[in-house]
Amino acid sequence: MEDQDFLLFIKKIKEHTSIDLALYKEAQMKRRLTTLRLKRGYNTFISFFEAMMKDKELFYEFLDRMTINVSEFWRNPNRWELVEQKFIPEMLKRNRRLKIWSAACSTGEEPYTLAMILAEQGALAETSLHASDIDDGALEKARKGLYLDRSVRDVPANYVKKYFKQDGLMFHVSEELKKSVKFQKQNLLVDTFDSGYDLIVCRNVIIYFTEEAKHVLYQKFAKALKPGGLLFVGSTEQIFSPGQYDLEAAETFFYRKKGV
């Protein structure tokens, strides 16, 4: 009965939201959602679903739990140093008008990190910088650009001084950065992607999907890149056969689309 309850929950979520929970690793997803369901006092997933359809805040909490909104500025700093010191300068030598996408951007730390790097290199104003996420709550936080001090612990000190305004334990992102990022809602597994990107950053999200869903996503990302464009993935998301997607390893966790 418990399995049938969860399967019906998956079916109803897909019917009402286009979110297909069957494409996520079931054990991880079920464990997280069971914890939330019991915490909120619902004995079955169907009663939980019915409550979510009436309570927007509960639905947003479900989305937040499902998408694991954990993000920091400059997460894994040595990887961002490569973006800053190697890849962005290489791209700017070829073309000053870049097109960049932060996919599954959570609460905005990642696209704002990109914006800082671009601003330092005098390229922010000419760059088209997109960011997307499935979670409206996360996107609302991203647009506000207000973060706890722990989120900025890896940001270089000169960048903190230049691009943030401190207010107690909180840090406000500068208006220059906020204006430069175009945030929008997007379901990676369902929606179509734009194309012609120089850089796509999608980190620490793909690990939650099934192998079949990962395969579809990598194909979609590869098609969205221009020849020579880069896909930057998370530290646990190595692509073992990038050639099948017309990609090749450029550095650890960076994959370049063939064709240049």
Task: Write up this protein.
The chain is built from 10 helices and 10 strands. With 260 residues, the chain is α/β, with parallel strands linked by helices. It is globular, with a radius of gyration of 19 Å. The mean pLDDT is 90. This is protein-glutamate O-methyltransferase. Keywords: Methyltransferase, S-adenosyl-L-methionine, Transferase. Its EC number is 2.1.1.80. InterPro entries: Bact_Chemotaxis_MeTrfase, CheR_C, CheR_MeTrfase, CheR_N, CheR_N_sf, SAM-dependent_MTases_sf.
Keywords, separated by commas or semicolons:
7-stranded mixed β-sheet, globular, transferase, 3-stranded antiparallel β-sheet, 260 residues, alpha/beta, CheR_N_sf, CheR_N
Gist of the model:
The chain has ten helices and ten strands.
Mean pLDDT: 90
Which regions have little confidence, pLDDT < 50, spanning 5+ residues? none
Helical content (DSSP H or I, runs of 4+): 40-55%
Number of strands: 10
Secondary-structure content class: alpha/beta
**Main sheet makeup:** 7 strands, mixed
Spatially, the strands of the biggest sheet line up as: 6-2-1-7-8-10-9
InterPro entries: Bact_Chemotaxis_MeTrfase (IPR050903), CheR_C (IPR022642), CheR_MeTrfase (IPR000780), CheR_N (IPR022641), CheR_N_sf (IPR036804), SAM-dependent_MTases_sf (IPR029063)
Pfam families: CheR (PF01739), CheR_N (PF03705)
Keywords: Methyltransferase, S-adenosyl-L-methionine, Transferase
Catalytic activity: L-glutamyl-[protein] + S-adenosyl-L-methionine = [protein]-L-glutamate 5-O-methyl ester + S-adenosyl-L-homocysteine
